[in-house]
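Bumping with the actual sequence this time:
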Amino acid sequence: MRVLLVEDSERLRRTLDTALKHAGYAADAVGDGAEGLWLARSGNYDVIILDLMLPGVDGLTLLSRLRGAGNDTHVLLLTAKDTVEDRVRGLRLGADDYVVKPFALDELLARVEALVRRRHGNKRSRLRFGDLEIDVGGRRATRDGRQIDLSPREYALLHYLVLHPGEVLTRTQIEAATYDETAELMSNVVDAAIYALRKKIDVPGRPSLIQTRRGMGYVFDPRLEDSLSADRATQGK
């Protein structure tokens, strides 16, 4: 999942950028409103975290220009305690949520996660596909009740795949959703990541939940497991 952070405080920007990447997000962080507007227009982000007080272009102007151009990316505002009027104006301009400085990091990450779920048309905190369960709030996955040890990047990849069940995702789409623009990537980085994820979530002797579509990309297809379960039930009668 891709997040754009626009915050002029270098210290806070570094802290949030590190926290977002540690949580598995592909994060781009800038401190200037004009650069943030350019990235927001050119990048395919799930969430934009936007400070109001910015050099170049202030946050409310940036938000207004985005919405005026038809950009519907979810926006989370970072505001000060004494800017109630700005918060109200921001919400009326099209912001989706806000947090007031100083804030708890866990709260900000939870709000980002909620906006990501809304972005992909899903408000549930737990996703279940057969015996595979994704705890979105806890950023954990289990299969048949067994905890799966996933790195933040592996969890982000799995989460992105399960939000698009049955949809073929190209390597470019997967790369854009799970790696920030500054990362230097090898040509086979997506294939290697899919291979590693399969080893952790698949069950020997059963179909892989992640299928390869040669020349196209990958698809998360839990229907294969459903079909297998149905066949077994039929044979047992």
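The tokens above came from a reply further down the thread. The first helix runs from residue 10 to 22.
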